[in-house]
Amino acid sequence: MKLEVQELRAGYGAKLVLDGVGLTVPEGSIVTLLGPNGCGKSTLLKVIGRLLKPKSGNVLLDGKAVHACDTAALARRMAILPQLHHASGEITVNELVGFGRFPHRTGLGVMNAHDREVVAEVLRMTRLTELRNRRIATLSGGERQRAWIAMTLAQQPQLLLLDEPTTFLDIRCQFEIIELVRDLNRRLGLTVLMVLHDLNLAARCSDRLVTLKDRKVRHAGTPQEILRPEILREIFEIEAEITTGKDGVPYFIPTGTARNPQEDRQ
Ligand SMILES: Nc1ncnc2c1ncn2[C@@H]1O[C@H](COP(=O)(O)OP(=O)(O)OP(=O)(O)O)[C@@H](O)[C@H]1O
User: In a mutational test of the pocket of ligand 1, which residue from 18, 21, 42, 196 has the highest number of ligand atoms less than 8 Å from its CB?
Assistant: First the structure.
């Protein structure tokens, strides 16, 4: 499913966070948003996921405005995992993943055989079958994050929005989550827009990177086009060396903070 954002203006009250933001996520691709803390990445995902109403502009899914879509129909096409998500720790993994079937339920809203099959398949995909009867409160951070992603997958979306899905995870779990997303993208053709803070992880798993700063999109391109010292200096105010791994993926090594020319003038 193709996602297009056009001339988006959004914020909170009088505070404008996004001003004229545009981006395209081609069908079947993984696009990652990068930018400093507070630049509006989560706000952008919230507007796309219809958790926040924009002041103006368009969000189009396969050419159709999301803000005109019926909520249940939209939830069958798009799933969002916000940065902070809460559920009672008392529910089991199986129950949490079952919540993902809500938009598909009919009649009295009970799970039917097909819903149960989807949940079982998603648990297999995310390697949670063994843990299905465990309470969320008893899971490790990585297992819990996998359970949340499994819940969004049970929605069987064509577009997945993930806000910092690897935060608080150790390096192995970070890779596991990213490999899971990549695998789902390849096998199911899932279109993904996510926010990551780890530039090397982002370069490894994304088809395209988009940078955001001062309310606007600054750059969009392949990891090779975006992971460049001058871009990292502009966006994050850091100095960095960029190397290319044996697999052709660029990675960066931070070497210091960049001087801010405005501060120099004062
Ligand atoms: N509910 C809210 N009410 C008022 N201001 C908000 C609200 N949510 C976010 N903001 C402000 O909007 C700006 C953008 O926040 P947002 O969470 O979108 O940034 P971000 O790029 O996702 O940041 P981070 O990398 O730290 O997660 C920040 O200045 C933030 O303080």
Answer: 42
**Separation between Cα atoms, residue 147 and residue 161, nearest integer Å:** 15
pTM exceeds 0.80? yes
Is the CB of 17 within 6 Å of ligand 1? yes
**What is the fold of 3-77+157-265?**
Rossmann fold (3.40.50)
What's the ipTM?
A: 0.98
For residue 152 and ligand 1, the question of a CB distance below 6 A is answered with: no
Residue closest via CA to ligand 1's atom 24 equals 37
For the chain, what are the domain ranges?
3-77+157-265, 87-156
Diameter of the chain measured on Cα atoms = 68
Q: Which of 95, 93, 101, 99 is nearest to 126 (CA)?
A: 93
